[in-house]
Amino acid sequence: MTVPYTLETGSAPCLSLHGDWTLDNYSWLLAAAQPLPGSIDSLDARGMTAMDTAGATVLLNLLGTEQLGRLASDAIGLSDERKALLIAVGKSVATQKSGPTSPPRQFGDSLARLGAYVVKGSAEILQFLSFLGLALATLFRLLPRPDRWRFTALIAQMHQTGLNAVPIVMLLNFLVGAVVAFLGATVLREFGATIYTVDLVAYAFMRELGVLLAAILLAGRTASAFTAQLGSMKINEELDALKVQSLNPMELLVLPRMLALLLVLPLLAWLAAMAGMAGGAVVAVATLDVSLARFIGIVQEIPLRHLLLGLSKAPFFAVVIALIGCLEGFKVGGSAQSLGEHTTSSVVQSIFAVILLDAIAALYFMEMGW
């Protein structure tokens, strides 16, 4: 195989190209392309039989971007197509080398990003409040019109979101109750007060853990289901079909889901509290030498208001979970990726909102002395 180029030195150095400057000869071209001693005044391509992008890249590395751009336009024996190819490869490599350089991060950039997050979060909160107002307005408008109530949809959603969630809610709270009892017994044993493990478990599940764990489970299980259902309907243009038939999606889809959670979450929270205390009772009877009768007697001495305070948070959690799930479903675009993103967002937002509301309620109850 002949050499790919020859250099004619003199007063006007000229680089003559030979053979095929193609991908098949790429390794050979790279090995044969040695650095040139100086600048070139002209380029002779009459001996070149073929050239593609790979060969143009080797020639670019040999001559450099600036020199190749100067020589390509006046090259001897170089067709217009090959000139355009060399110029395009040169521009592409120059763009890749320069690239969009990101400026160094400064304190102001962090503040700008924080401000953007605050603005975005504020917009989402306002959007949720607007959606809440729309749902409540639709509910109050339908209350005096029993003929428009969707009993079938309500019962179906209660079965799906409530009855089907009973096993996982009770199992999780039973196990958490056992863990809390083990933890309390381990700490209180050092003070000789293991009997107060019963009070620890009872107070924790009556006031906080029962309703909180039930709400978090529904936030992950039900909010995602609502988003996926409504998002799929939007992708399939079923929501548009409902509007064409003069059917209100809020009345047909949102209210049955919100009312179903309003009815079932307090019941699930009560079952969760009972299951958590049952888990604590098993640990107390098995490891703390506390009889079942003694455990029940201590629990009965706890004022009922603690259980009522815990259950009073359930309706607020239910409304937030249902509306966030439905709102994210309505935001879904026309792709599966958008559906997945909004389903994930509904779960994250629901869990965050539930924990935030629980913290606010705990502070309020503490300040009120309840």
Can you offer a commentary on this structure?
- The chain has helices at 26-32, 53-63, 65-72, 80-98, 107-142, 151-161, 166-188, 197-235, 238-244, 249-287, 292-300, 305-312, 314-331, 336-368; strands at 5-8, 14-21, 42-51.
- It contains 14 helices and three strands.
- The protein is mainly alpha-helical and 370 residues long.
- The mean pLDDT is 85.
- It starts with a strand and ends with a helix.
- It has two domains: 5-98, Transcription Regulator spoIIAA (2-Layer Sandwich), CATH 3.30.750; 119-368, no CATH class.
Would you spell out the secondary-structure blueprint of this structure?
Layout: E1 5-8, E2 14-21, H1 26-32, E3 42-51, H2 53-63, H3 65-72, H4 80-98, H5 107-142, H6 151-161, H7 166-188, H8 197-235, H9 238-244, H10 249-287, H11 292-300, H12 305-312, H13 314-331, H14 336-368
Parallel strand pairs: 2-3
Antiparallel strand pairs: 1-2
Helix pairs in contact: 2-3, 2-4, 3-4, 5-10, 6-10, 7-8, 7-10, 8-10, 8-12, 8-13, 8-14, 10-12, 10-13, 13-14
